[in-house]
Amino acid sequence: MLPGMSFVGLLAYVARFDGWGAWGAAPLLLVPVLLSLPITGAGLMRWRRARARGESGVVSALLTLTAAIPLLWLGWRLIVS
């Protein structure tokens, strides 16, 4: 939850700037992306373990997807740009 919330907050902060100011503040968006990497990795391992035990991994999958929002956004921006 923390990477997603910090990402939304920093995205709103960066959007306040115009021109070069936005370019200067944009590296702040890397903080939630780097924060979401280990959380997403741990969530994927937890989801895989739950599936191997025959349990429903819906909660783990949803939490992992929530933690991966900054990573998905960065991937989308890299593909589109």
Compact summary:
The chain is mostly helical and 81 residues long.
Characterization of the model:
- With 81 residues, this protein is an all-alpha fold.
- It has one domain.
- The protein contains five helices and no strands.
- The chain has helices at residues 2-15, 20-25, 30-52, 58-67, 69-80.
- Helix 3 runs antiparallel to helix 4 (58-67) and helix 3 crosses helix 5 (69-80).
Radius of gyration: 15 Å
Structural class: mainly alpha
Low-confidence stretches: none
- Number of DSSP E strands: 0
Gross geometry: elongated
What is the helix tally? 5
In angstroms, what separates the terminal alpha carbons?
Answer: 27 Å
Number of domains: 1
Question: How much strand?
Answer: under 5%
SSE topology string: HHHHH
Largest sheet: none
Q: Tell me the helix content.
A: over 70%
Average of per-residue pLDDT values:
88
Question: What brief labels describe this structure?
Answer:
mainly alpha; 5 helices; elongated
Please write out the topology.
Elements: H1 2-15, H2 20-25, H3 30-52, H4 58-67, H5 69-80
Helix pairs in contact: 1-3, 3-4, 3-5
